[in-house]
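Appendix B: complex inputs.
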Amino acid sequence: MNQTTNILVVGIGGQGVMTASEILSEAAISQGFDVKKTEVAGMSQRGGVVSSHVRFGAKVLSPEIPPGEADILVGFEAAEAMRWSHWLRPKNGSQGGVAMINRLRLEPPIVSLGLFAYPADPVAAVRERGLEAHDFDAGEIARGLGDLRLVNTIMLGAISDSLPFPAETLKACIVTRFAAKNPALAALNAKAFELGKAAGKR
Amino acid sequence: MSAKPFTPPPAGSRLLMSGNEAIARAVWDAGARVAAAYPGTPATEILENLARYPDLYAEWSVNEKVSLEVAIGASLTGARSFCAMKHVGLNVAADALMTLTLTGVVGGLVIAVADDVGFSSSQNEQDSRFWGRFAHLPILEPADSQEAYAMAREAFALSEKFNAPVILRLTTRVCHVKCLIETGARETKRAADGFVQNPARWVMVPAHAQKRLPEVFAREAALTEESEASALNRLEAGSDRRVGFVTSGPAYMHVREAFPDAPVLKLGLSYPVPMNRVRALAAQTDTLIVVEETEQLLETEIRAAGIPARGKDLLPAAGELPPFILKKHLASLLPELGDGNALPAPLSVFPRPPTMCVACPHLGVFYTLSQLRNVIIAGDIGCYTLGAGHPWNALDTTICMGASMGMALGMDKGRGPEDEKKNIVAVIGDSTFMHMGMQGLLDIAYNRGNVTVLLLDNRTVGMTGGQDNPASGRDIHGEEAPRIDFAKVVESLGVAPEHIRVVDPYLLPVLFKAIREEVKYNGPSVIITNRPCVLIDEYKTLPAYEVLESACTGCGNCVEIGCPAIHVTRREKAVKPSGREVELAFVNIETAACTGCGLCLQPCAPNAIRPAQPKPVKVEFV
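Resulting structure:
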């Protein structure tokens, strides 16, 4: 518990980035870690960039992850993962950060208007800088389960084996969130978590 | 969005809380009776949370000045009172503040002011620590949620001890960072002992006010002694004494992380400055560095006291100072930091600025404004400030809350031949109009300005997340409250009834005609749009639309609406019969996001947009 674990969750306003980082924080607290979580939330509701920093360890001081020091980058959208890729810890032997990327491509109006281009292959761009990146279509899994809102849980499942505490802890935090108000939804999220976990391994 | 009441967790709870949530809890635990605020990033959630607590009066005020005045009034009855605002809010409330410092308080009065260091959602980055100097008032600066909780409580005690309002200076990195806090026991709600008449104290005419000044100076001297002795200011000895730091607020956390072995004087009660303690630190370090976000304030004062110190000659005077910035800029003093550590470079990705929402009623307004030629559009502060961006490019100025009114009038009165043929339009939202716009419109009417005002009434404070206000007709708890009648207000301010129109912003031809007609009129006119913000309960979604691909001609008219649910699927170059080359943009509508406002149908030349079939699955994210 001496080392600080840094997780950067990125995406677009409305995707559930902040909920995901909140759940990660709760799970870390349940393991006795000191936790800080920060994001800039002012305009996030307006389709802008959202990045949420979660840090936990024996004692966390600054809430912000320094560039190049994120252990895990959770990208809810492909280009956003690319935008924040320099925050990930570069590979150094067996050490190095891991990016878990949802393949979803969300083009903002600025791209639709023809003012900017959307990168051809954001995941490849992340790999080209020598970083370990896993990608899959979380939306497809969510659709298969009948509810696109499950993307959030699927992404958490996907990184659950890379955490300094058991995946079950994170899963329990998610399930507990839903259990009280909707047991069916709790079961569905448990399923989504497992599918995400499997997808993250591939 | 209204605050739902809840049962606060008991004393001794360990809770994951943002600074804003922690302050709300502290205000309640301090037994405050009255709390008031106008929403503003990053401070909005303080009152939003506070309103959920039982046994306390909370309100959304129409502006920050009123919120402070409400707190002052409550304090005079003996109640502990509180108000919260963003940094620029205190500019508005400053008139009250600068005389409140003379009267002092009865019940403890705490003013939380949140600086938007890093510009997450503000028009400037001003440093609220200046107010402590300007008004001779104590400033507390927490570094995280736990400190925010403790200091907010301490602030009430200090306020009563020194008979002064206390400024709790926050920054975005305190307001919006969540960490664990432990709550203490709640104080018994302080009884309001009753207002005691005392004109020499409460009626600030010159004869009374000037007698209060010596007391203010004596208080400041006493506060300086307090600061020298206070446990809120602490010296952390370090083993590496080449560089010592004086710092406050979240910058303390950054310094501590970047330089774990350096001595640090952490200022919690940062004004008045405990200069003896600064001097003591300076004596035991080679170089004293002042790390402050954002202005060079403490450093100047420390040097003026004859203590050698450095700071802004090395560090940035804008934005946050996280550890990697500190290390980079202090590398010249500490060789082991190398060349300011080479950081990985970002990959180039398109910008993703905030957009207006799908079906936002402002889309119709800015689409229409973008079609007009020869207009100057004075803008204001709210979601509609986004009208300055693509694709509309239909907003020419933004200064501060309500400025569109006065500036439009000034443009009308000051214009020369260059602008003679231009039409001057001002755009303002309901909440901003009530905050500071009404007086400006009164000025336009009184001085017979030739200005057309677009009052975008979406019945909420949109940009900060949809708080209730007098236009929503609900109070902070969601309870029914008197709803303002804008048409009547505008008429009583002096606008002729035949030049006041209420228009549906989803009906583009109607809106276009109304604007065209009113800008031709030489005098004040007001067009009120009447559709609710899509983020509030009042907004009702309609069935979605889709693009019939075979019918889309690629004219791109619908793209000009600026709705984020419309995507260009392919572009083609084409040559018109006239020989002119045009770029065609073929589109689709993300039916799962579309809520059926119908704006894009209206400029679609080939009628290629039709009700979506089959029924779409709704996309939502938790």
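Residues 112 and 142 of chain A are 26 Å apart (CA to CA).
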